[in-house]
Design brief:
This protein is α+β, with helices and mostly antiparallel strands. It has a single domain (1-97), classed as Nuclear Transport Factor 2, Chain: A. It is built from three helices and five strands, in the order ααββαβββ. The chain has helices at 2-17, 21-27, 44-51, and strands at 33-34, 42-43, 58-69, 72-81, 86-91. The strands form two sheets. Strands 3-4-5 form a three-stranded antiparallel sheet, with helices on one face. A two-stranded antiparallel sheet has the order 1-2. The longest helix is centred in the first third of the chain and has 16 residues, at 2-17. The two termini are 14 Å apart.
Length: 106
């Protein structure tokens, strides 16, 4: 399960970088919830309405670590912008919110 979850997280970051909203939407479960310092407990539809934008400003994501334990995961990454700015973030995606993982998952 942890290898599948790590692969799914890496695939999700690649989809964000490619600005592939459809692939991101398919990777997130219907009961996905999103919370940040700016948004609290958004459902999937509201997340895409408020938070999805053009990712063309992102040059790359450097995933520094992924830690998976059971149904939970932490991912720490460095985001490098095309203008040279950067920020580091740690996300805590629940594996269940990332949709199906494991053998037979699409």
């Amino acid at each position: 399960m942890s290898d599948d979850c790590e692969r799914l997280i890496r695939d999700l970051f690649a989809a964000y970088l490619a600005n592939d909203r459809q692939r991101v939407a398919e990777a997130l479960s219907d009961d996905f919830r999103f919370t940040s310092p700016f948004d609290d407990d958004l459902d999937k539809a509201t997340y895409f309405e408020r938070c999805w934008g053009d990712t063309g400003w992102i040059a790359r994501h450097d995933i520094e670590r992924i830690f998976v334990r059971g149904e939970e995961a932490f991912v720490t990454y460095l985001c490098l912008a095309t203008d040279g700015r950067s920020f580091r973030n740690t996300s805590f995606p629940a594996a269940a919110a990332l949709g199906p993982v494991g053998p037979g998952a699409s």
